[in-house]
Amino acid sequence: MLRAIYPGSFDPVTYGHLDVIRRSCKIVDELIVGVLNNNAKMPLFSVEERVKMLKEVTKDLTNVKIVPFHGLLIDFARETGADVVIRGLRAITDFEYELQMSQTNHKLEPNVETMFLTTSIEYSYLSSTTVKEIAAFGGDITQFVPEAVAVKLREKMNAKGECNNE
Ligand code: PNS
């Protein structure tokens, strides 16, 4: 039984994340999508909102669970009994950070390995940060995120706009 964690902020989930989730869940028996609960990162969406959106967009995948976590990823891996951490690599710019993270995690817990999937070419430019920026300026985000997420993003941006206009 191979259990893997795909950890991230998912603020919000994009088609790039979904591509990694769909491909990984074919390789492993169980995939836990670990949603980082860390307010220091000042996420746009609360962890509950991010979990809800992920559940919605992965509801057809029977071996995928969406679970929030805080603290060290390696402690979460120990708690859930995961053998592998999966991360997506988009471009060379991701490499240094991912290398450091995987080597540090391996030093902390040698029984957990990190495996990388290179993102599909059509999503290699995509990030949650750019999607939020496009949404903030009223741009079309439907090609970057599933419809359910696009709706939530527009709602969030409208609410923020109303707050800023007060
Ligand atoms: O989507 P992100 O923001 O690139 O995901 C980063 C994440 C959540 C994988 C990383 O920040 C993380 O694992 N945080 C938990 C804290 C931790 O374990 N830090 C030590 C890793 S070197």
UniProtKB/TrEMBL annotation:
Enzyme Commission no: 2.7.7.3
Site positions per UniProt: Transition state stabilizer: 17
CDD domains according to UniProt: PPAT
Binding site for substrate: 9, 41, 73, 87
EC class: transferase
Pathway: Cofactor biosynthesis; coenzyme A biosynthesis; CoA from (R)-pantothenate: step 4/5
Binding site for ATP: 9-10, 17, 88-90, 98, 123-129
InterPro entries: Cyt_trans-like, PPAT, Rossmann-like_a/b/a_fold
Protein family (similarity comment): Belongs to the bacterial CoaD family.
Protein name (Swiss-Prot/TrEMBL): Phosphopantetheine adenylyltransferase
Species per Swiss-Prot/TrEMBL record: Faecalicatena acetigenes
